[in-house]
Amino acid sequence: KTIYLKDYQVPEYLIDETSLTFELYEDHSLVHAQLVMRRNPEAGPGLPLLVLNGQNMELLSLRLDDRDLTAADYLLSPSELTVQPDSASFTLDSTVRIHPETNTALEGLYKSGTMFCTQCEAEGFRKITYYLDRPDVMSSFTTTVSADKQRYPVLLSNGNPIASGDGDNGRHWATWQDPFKKPAYLFALVAGDLWCVEDTFTTMSAREVALRIYVEPENIDKCQHAMDSLKKSMRWDEEVYGREYDLDIFMIVAVNDFNMGAMENKGLNIFNSSAVLAKAETATDAAHQRIEGILAHEYFHNWSGNRVTCRDWFQLSLKEGFTVFRDAEFSADMNSRTVKRIEDVAYLRTHQFAEDAGPMAHPVRPDSYMEISNFYTLTVYEKGAEVLRMIHTLLGAEAFRKGSDLYFERHDGQAVTCDDFIKAMEDASGVDLTQFKRWYSQAGTPRLDVREAYDAAAQTYTLTFKQSCPATPGQPEKQPFVIPVELGLLNAQGVELPLRLQGEAEALGTSRVLSLTEAEQSFTFVDIAEQPLPSLLRGFSAPVKLSFPYSRDQLMFLMQHDSDGFNRWEAGQQLAVQILQELIAQHQAGKALELDQRLIAALRTVLENDQLDQAMVAEMLSLPGEAYLAEISEVADVEAIHAAREFARKQIAAELFEPLWARYQENRAISRERAYVAEAAEFARRALQNIALSYLMESGKDEVLAACLEQFEQTDNMTERLHAMAVLVNSPFEAEKAASLAKFAEHFKDNPLVMDQWFSVQAGSPLPGGLARVQQLMQHPAFNLKNPNKVRALIGAFANQNLINFHAADGSGYRFLADQVIALDGFNPQIAARQLAPLTRWRKYDATRQALIQGELKRILASGELSADVYEVVSKSLN
Ligand code: ARG
Ligand code: ZN
Fold first, then answer.
1. What CDD domains does UniProt report for this protein, alphabetically (predicted)?
2. Cα dihedral angle (718, 720, 722, 726), rounded to 10 degrees?
């Protein structure tokens, strides 16, 4: 069944107060709900039927005001409970029995290990009790939890604790009250044997907030980084957005079994343990940075999501796009701004662009869905954040802040739409965003083709921009977007020219934003004394595919001289793409591969520049990934892509051995002396050290192998150890590989998050025999198909990061993935549907592979009763 945005109607009834009592037992749980309700005055006159959502539960009793209802008084279906109210205000009491202990979908109330926890976004609350489970129904909540005291000493819910006590039979209870009205998707409950790390934060109005991170006892030593990140986030949101925390306590709980990264439940965030736990010995630099970003993301939702929430799920990007933009800016401020931008753009172009080009393509605000869980996508999150970034670029920081202040003030306590957000931005800035809003309604990645014309006599330079956007499902034609293009012009000395457009009295700086609004549009700069070189789309100012006919020499020039750090990196990437595409063509033509030496020269300059931030050096040394090369291909030839990229890597390693070795040794020496610190300068240093080691190992030299083994053994941190092991895993040194894998697994066998990394490294190895290795690893005692992190670490890593093995010509990779999806769908539909993503991209491959993938999709469709999640993705992919 498909739900449409255009069918939205306000709720017939509202819930003002919700009182819940949970009795948790080992073989079932009871939920008593008292809902104080009334007819929604905005919905019109009369008393229509009250239709409550509810699934997978047994109704034990129902009472309307003072009247016990019997089966004759209500209508029960597998997903709804219908009652006829007899007055405009009433109280509905229900008791249901549910089974969290057998809830493998990890949605609603479920058990992760020995603890009880919840995940209600988007529609999980309806598996807990009968309710109006939609985000525009906002209620206050009072929640009492009762459970065995010994097994579950800690009982948590949203808001502030107001009472607690002991009960009979070794049980105890606690009551929590959340004074802020919220939709049911922000409800949370936790019961378990948990320890916590405590701290406090003093807000800008000098209120003291208690901060607690709850974890299983063995993880109590891995919370400090998350706590530090939380405090930084709280301060940043005050300083940059003027947003203060509102309750007396803020809690985070880490759980091992979680479908996503984390969840922003009011005052009680629940996190995948992978998004909280970190210490030097067990978590990499990348994990530390990811944790900092997710902590910030969930914390920022307290305003962008909770205080102001979504009217309906089509508006999801209202909170997600905005909050991703906020967390990205936070990370940029905490670390290197340019490096953060590079990482985000590389990720967007590889994965979101692929989604936008595939059968599941949808606008940032979708028009329809079958299963909302399938729309927690790269488009809603990442492209949504790009849309916010463009607004920020077009309005400027100051007007943007005025707009966000107005938005929060105007809509505090409301459930609103993306239009309301835009309206606040317009009202605060005076900028008309009517055409800009097409970014919310049109899917697909726009192309932007740029031509130049220099007129030496008139001393003018004209750039002509032509935009277009490919058709996407349901949207054959597109209207022009508003595209902010930040640019600069460089002369032959690399000096940036003052930018004065025809008709302007004076130049406006050397870098400025042009706002494109038409399908084709020209801009003429005056007083240009010589043919300049343009630096276009600085900072990736819009999520488009830009093309300009740069020569390789021009790209090398920009790599050296562009004042925009992002575009220096981008020039290097474009140079590498051109050269790799040439190698791909040589491979396809059966010719000997020959690398354009300009790539070597460019990378040598980068390596020898000791003024450059080491993180930038590391980024510039990274060749575009195979998945990105596939995305930009007309037809992705995975074998040619892999061969070309490996060939280039080997050549770089051979030609640049000396400077790479110098950079490696210098940094490894520092790593050996210093204790691990999780901060930007050290992330940068280790990033360069590690990428240098990957190249060096291509040489096969003994001294490099010795260095790699030394780094693997003699380190205090996971960043060095894991990378050394990964490099060994991808090397031909079989004995050393086996020994290091065994040693690592023995040492970390009791740490599931570290074992996830051990699985991922092997699943991602491009060496022949990948599928067999993955199948064997599925038998490993640390593997468990029921745990989403394990599925992502092994099956996900294989299908997404091991293109050469996954796309094996015999279709074995596809068959394997389809088998796993069918198995997963039997108990966790959300995870099953997510693992399908690589199979939805079938149009990218050759005819044989297309047929093989389609065959597997059809096999899934015919495999029996499918969840709505998997059905939607498979059926749309085959369409
Ligand atoms: N709101 C959460 C976050 O982004 C994600 C929840 C996703 N839930 C889901 N069922 N897909 O922070
Ligand atoms: Zn979010």
1. M1_APN
2. 170
Distance from C-alpha of 696 to C-alpha of 676, rounded to nearest angstrom:
24
> Ligand 1 in contact with 558 (CB < 6 A)?
no
Q: Which atom of ligand 1 is nearest to the CA of 123?
A: 10
DSSP 76-92: E-SSEEEE--SSSEEEE
Q: What whole-number distance in Å separates Cα of residue 784 and Cα of residue 169?
A: 35
Decide: 270 and 263 in contact? Cβ < 8 Å: yes
**Could you tell me the two tokens for 700?**
């096969």
Number of residues in the chain: 879
Q: Which sign, positive or negative, has the C-alpha torsion 64, 70, 72, 74?
A: positive
Task: Find all residues with CB under 8 Å of 509, minimum gap 6, and list them.
Answer: 498, 499
In 3D space, the residue among 725, 726, 602 whose CA is nearest the CA of residue 655 turns out to be 602
Residue 748 CB neighbour total at 10 angstroms: 19
- Map residue 69 onto helix, strand or coil: coil
- Kindly identify the ligand whose nearest atom is closest to the C-alpha of 326: 2
User: 364: CA distance to ligand 2 center in Å?
Assistant: 14
Q: Tell which residue, 648, 642, 656, has the closest CA to residue 594.
A: 648
Instruction: Please identify every stretch of the chain with a pLDDT value under 50, giving residue numbers as ranges.
Output: none
The alpha carbon of 687 and the centre of ligand 2 are apart by a number of angstroms equal to 28
pLDDT at 82: 98
- pLDDT for 441-466, tens place per residue? 999 999 999 999 999 999 999 999 99
Q: What pLDDT does residue 62 have?
A: 98
Amino acid at position 433, single letter: L
Residues 352, 321 contacting (CB under 8 angstroms)? no
Digit-coded pLDDT (tens) for 576-610: 999 999 999 999 999 999 999 999 999 999 999 99
What distance in Å separates the CA atoms of residue 431 and residue 423, rounded to the nearest whole number?
10
Pairwise CA distance, residues 368 & 314, whole Å: 8
Residue 495 phi, psi (nearest 5): -85, 140
**324 CA from centroid of ligand 2 (Å):** 7
Q: DSSP label at 67?
A: E
816's enclosing H/E stretch is helix 812-825
| CB 155 within 8 Å of CB 164 | yes
The finding on whether 263 has its CB within 6 A of some atom of ligand 1 is yes
CB 121 near ligand 1, within 6 Å: yes
Question: Which has the closest alpha carbon to 703: 693, 716, 715, 717?
Answer: 693
With a 6 A CB cut-off, is 262 part of the ligand 1 pocket? yes
pTM for this entry: 0.99
Active-site residue list: 298
As for the ipTM of the complex, it is 0.98
